[in-house]
Amino acid sequence: MLERFIRPTRRVVEAATRIAGESTASQVRPEHLLLGLARVGDRVVGATLDEVGVTPSALRPAVLEATRRAG
Question: Which CATH architecture has domain 7-70?
Fold first, then answer.
């Protein structure tokens, strides 16, 4: 399935899949894709995070805490 995506998208999905596995999630969820985007280091994502004052290192704990509370 990943072969249908362009390379940057594949890298994000692969990173999200690894992150989901690390957290023992049964499926890749939106939060894993967000963390995958941050992990891959896309310029647009990085600039957006900078603009709102979020560092990639602070993103993961915040996302994990938010999903823990939500779920």
Answer: Orthogonal Bundle (1.10)
